[in-house]
Protein backbone atom coordinates (compact mmCIF):
# COMPACT_ATOMS: atom_id res chain seq x y z
CA UNK A 1 0.00 0.00 0.00
CA UNK A 2 1.21 3.48 -0.87
CA UNK A 3 -0.41 6.33 1.02
CA UNK A 4 -0.31 9.84 -0.46
CA UNK A 5 -0.92 12.70 1.98
CA UNK A 6 -1.38 16.08 0.36
CA UNK A 7 -2.44 19.46 1.69
CA UNK A 8 -1.44 23.04 2.21
CA UNK A 9 1.40 24.10 4.43
CA UNK A 10 0.83 23.60 8.18
CA UNK A 11 -2.12 21.21 7.80
CA UNK A 12 -0.31 18.36 9.57
CA UNK A 13 0.86 16.17 6.68
CA UNK A 14 4.13 15.29 8.39
CA UNK A 15 2.44 14.71 11.76
CA UNK A 16 -0.09 12.36 10.16
CA UNK A 17 2.69 10.56 8.30
CA UNK A 18 4.57 10.10 11.57
CA UNK A 19 1.44 8.72 13.28
CA UNK A 20 0.91 6.26 10.42
CA UNK A 21 4.58 5.23 10.58
CA UNK A 22 4.25 4.55 14.31
CA UNK A 23 0.97 2.64 13.92
CA UNK A 24 1.66 0.62 10.75
CA UNK A 25 5.47 0.79 10.52
CA UNK A 26 5.26 2.11 6.93
CA UNK A 27 8.23 4.32 6.08
CA UNK A 28 7.47 7.78 4.79
CA UNK A 29 9.07 10.18 2.39
CA UNK A 30 8.72 13.92 2.69
CA UNK A 31 8.70 15.55 -0.74
CA UNK A 32 10.14 18.63 1.00
CA UNK A 33 13.28 16.63 1.86
CA UNK A 34 13.64 15.56 -1.76
CA UNK A 35 13.07 19.16 -2.88
CA UNK A 36 15.71 20.58 -0.56
CA UNK A 37 18.20 17.82 -1.42
CA UNK A 38 17.88 18.62 -5.12
CA UNK A 39 18.07 22.37 -4.53
CA UNK A 40 21.01 22.26 -2.10
CA UNK A 41 22.95 19.81 -4.25
CA UNK A 42 22.67 22.13 -7.24
CA UNK A 43 20.66 19.63 -9.29
CA UNK A 44 18.10 22.35 -10.03
CA UNK A 45 18.11 26.13 -10.23
CA UNK A 46 14.62 26.21 -8.72
CA UNK A 47 14.14 27.76 -5.29
CA UNK A 48 11.79 26.78 -2.44
CA UNK A 49 9.44 29.56 -3.57
CA UNK A 50 8.94 28.12 -7.09
CA UNK A 51 5.91 26.01 -6.11
CA UNK A 52 4.33 25.42 -9.53
CA UNK A 53 7.63 24.66 -11.21
CA UNK A 54 8.67 22.45 -8.30
CA UNK A 55 5.54 20.32 -8.62
CA UNK A 56 6.25 19.79 -12.34
CA UNK A 57 9.91 19.01 -11.55
CA UNK A 58 9.38 16.76 -8.53
CA UNK A 59 6.27 14.80 -9.47
CA UNK A 60 7.91 12.64 -12.19
CA UNK A 61 10.56 11.60 -9.66
CA UNK A 62 8.04 10.94 -6.88
CA UNK A 63 5.72 9.12 -9.31
CA UNK A 64 8.49 6.70 -10.24
CA UNK A 65 9.38 6.14 -6.58
CA UNK A 66 5.73 5.22 -5.97
CA UNK A 67 5.67 2.87 -8.97
CA UNK A 68 8.84 1.19 -7.73
CA UNK A 69 7.34 0.66 -4.26
CA UNK A 70 4.22 -0.85 -5.83
CA UNK A 71 6.27 -3.11 -8.13
CA UNK A 72 8.32 -4.28 -5.16
CA UNK A 73 5.26 -4.88 -2.97
CA UNK A 74 6.46 -2.31 -0.44
CA UNK A 75 4.43 -0.05 1.80
CA UNK A 76 5.24 3.65 1.62
CA UNK A 77 3.81 6.96 2.79
CA UNK A 78 4.53 10.01 0.62
CA UNK A 79 3.62 13.43 1.97
CA UNK A 80 3.90 16.91 0.61
CA UNK A 81 2.36 19.88 -1.13
CA UNK A 82 3.74 18.78 -4.51
CA UNK A 83 1.32 15.91 -5.16
CA UNK A 84 -0.83 17.03 -8.09
CA UNK A 85 -4.61 16.80 -7.77
CA UNK A 86 -4.71 14.83 -11.02
CA UNK A 87 -2.24 12.27 -9.63
CA UNK A 88 -4.43 9.38 -10.83
CA UNK A 89 -3.56 10.20 -14.45
CA UNK A 90 0.02 9.11 -13.69
CA UNK A 91 -0.90 5.51 -12.88
CA UNK A 92 -2.45 2.46 -14.46
CA UNK A 93 -5.58 0.96 -12.88
CA UNK A 94 -3.70 -1.84 -11.09
CA UNK A 95 -1.30 0.74 -9.62
CA UNK A 96 -4.15 3.00 -8.45
CA UNK A 97 -5.59 0.04 -6.53
CA UNK A 98 -2.42 0.02 -4.39
CA UNK A 99 -2.65 3.76 -3.59
CA UNK A 100 -4.66 5.55 -0.91
CA UNK A 101 -4.82 9.35 -1.20
CA UNK A 102 -6.05 12.00 1.19
CA UNK A 103 -5.71 15.78 1.26
CA UNK A 104 -5.72 17.63 4.58
CA UNK A 105 -7.79 20.82 4.45
CA UNK A 106 -8.44 23.32 7.22
CA UNK A 107 -11.64 25.36 7.11
CA UNK A 108 -11.55 29.14 7.28
CA UNK A 109 -13.27 29.02 10.68
CA UNK A 110 -10.69 26.57 11.98
CA UNK A 111 -7.77 28.69 10.77
CA UNK A 112 -9.20 31.89 12.24
CA UNK A 113 -9.98 30.34 15.63
CA UNK A 114 -6.81 28.21 15.89
CA UNK A 115 -4.12 30.22 14.10
CA UNK A 116 -1.89 30.47 17.18
CA UNK A 117 -2.19 26.69 17.68
CA UNK A 118 -1.30 26.10 14.02
CA UNK A 119 1.84 28.20 14.49
CA UNK A 120 2.67 26.53 17.81
CA UNK A 121 2.49 23.03 16.28
CA UNK A 122 4.50 23.89 13.16
CA UNK A 123 7.60 22.20 14.58
CA UNK A 124 5.96 19.26 16.31
CA UNK A 125 7.69 16.68 14.09
CA UNK A 126 10.34 18.71 12.31
CA UNK A 127 12.12 21.89 13.31
CA UNK A 128 10.88 24.37 10.74
CA UNK A 129 12.98 27.25 9.63
CA UNK A 130 11.78 30.79 10.24
CA UNK A 131 8.03 31.00 9.65
CA UNK A 132 7.11 34.66 10.16
CA UNK A 133 5.56 35.01 6.68
CA UNK A 134 2.69 32.71 7.60
CA UNK A 135 -0.63 34.54 7.80
CA UNK A 136 -4.24 33.49 8.34
CA UNK A 137 -5.20 34.99 4.97
CA UNK A 138 -2.55 32.99 3.10
CA UNK A 139 -3.57 29.76 4.85
CA UNK A 140 -7.25 30.40 4.15
CA UNK A 141 -6.55 31.09 0.49
CA UNK A 142 -4.39 28.00 0.02
CA UNK A 143 -6.82 25.70 1.85
CA UNK A 144 -9.81 27.11 -0.04
CA UNK A 145 -8.01 26.52 -3.36
CA UNK A 146 -7.11 22.96 -2.33
CA UNK A 147 -10.72 22.20 -1.38
CA UNK A 148 -11.87 23.47 -4.77
CA UNK A 149 -9.25 21.33 -6.55
CA UNK A 150 -10.17 18.25 -4.50
CA UNK A 151 -13.80 18.65 -5.48
CA UNK A 152 -12.90 19.30 -9.11
CA UNK A 153 -10.74 16.15 -9.33
CA UNK A 154 -12.81 13.94 -7.02
CA UNK A 155 -9.99 13.63 -4.49
CA UNK A 156 -10.81 12.48 -0.95
CA UNK A 157 -10.02 14.98 1.77
CA UNK A 158 -10.12 15.41 5.51
CA UNK A 159 -11.82 18.67 6.46
CA UNK A 160 -10.41 19.98 9.71
CA UNK A 161 -13.18 22.18 11.06
CA UNK A 162 -13.39 21.50 14.78
CA UNK A 163 -11.36 19.20 16.96
CA UNK A 164 -8.15 18.52 15.02
CA UNK A 165 -7.47 15.04 16.43
CA UNK A 166 -11.07 13.90 15.99
CA UNK A 167 -11.03 15.16 12.39
CA UNK A 168 -7.86 13.17 11.68
CA UNK A 169 -9.27 10.02 13.28
CA UNK A 170 -12.42 10.24 11.13
CA UNK A 171 -10.29 10.98 8.08
CA UNK A 172 -7.92 8.08 8.68
CA UNK A 173 -10.92 5.77 8.39
CA UNK A 174 -11.22 6.99 4.78
CA UNK A 175 -7.81 5.50 4.05
CA UNK A 176 -9.22 2.01 4.74
CA UNK A 177 -6.03 0.70 6.34
Which terms summarize this structure?
50% helix; alpha/beta; 5 strands; Rossmann fold; 177 residues; 5-stranded parallel sheet
CATH class: Alpha Beta
Q: Structural class given helices, strands, pairing? A: alpha/beta
CATH third-tier fold name: Rossmann fold
Q: Which segments are poorly predicted (pLDDT under 50) over 5 or more consecutive residues?
A: none
Radius of gyration: 16 Å
**How large a portion of the residues is in β-strands, by DSSP E?**
5-15%
Instruction: Give the ordered list of helices and strands.
Output: EHEHHEHEHHEH
Number of domains: 1
- Silhouette: globular
Q: Can you tell me the CATH superfamily?
A: P-loop containing nucleotide triphosphate hydrolases
Distance N terminus to C terminus? 9 Å
Mean pLDDT: 90
Question: Major sheet, described briefly?
Answer: 5 strands, parallel
Return the CATH architecture.
Answer: 3-Layer(aba) Sandwich
Fraction of residues in H or I helices: 40-55%
Specify the number of helices.
Answer: 7
* Tally of DSSP β-strands: 5
Strand ordering within the main sheet:
2-3-1-4-5
Amino acid sequence: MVILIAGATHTGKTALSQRLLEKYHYPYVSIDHLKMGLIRSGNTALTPEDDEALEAYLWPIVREMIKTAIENGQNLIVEGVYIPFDWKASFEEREKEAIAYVCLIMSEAYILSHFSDIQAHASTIEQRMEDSGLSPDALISENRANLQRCRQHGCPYILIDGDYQASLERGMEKLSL
